[in-house]
Automatic annotation (TrEMBL):
It comes from the Bacteria. It holds the Pfam family ACPS. This is Holo-[acyl-carrier-protein] synthase. It comes from Thiospirochaeta perfilievii. GO terms for biological process: fatty acid biosynthetic process. One of its GO terms (molecular function) is holo-[acyl-carrier-protein] synthase activity.
Amino acid sequence: MAKVKRFDKFLDNEAFLNKYFHKSEIDYVKSKGVSAAQSLAGKFAAREAFFKALGTGFIGFSPRDISVDNNKSGKPYITPNQSVINELDRLANNWKIHLSISHEKEYAIAQVILEA
């Protein structure tokens, strides 16, 4: 879970955005207008949920090791980089990532289920 107000002040902080998010994510968030902070908080909450589901937290990984993107209908999905794929492959032969993000005025929350 992430407090939206906290992320509102980060929208113009390029150093923060580039430390935690990929360009595609930043462009998507900035296109959201009024709900940009909610979208940013949701993408951050998704990162936390993913690495908790992986069982590592951020230990050994960077928040930028995954990308939280959206398909044409707006459904979010996670794209892991090779180091995360290697860890997922170590845990299971076939894996699938399920992601749900929800947000409202004050909070954003994400749930990740890793299916093996």
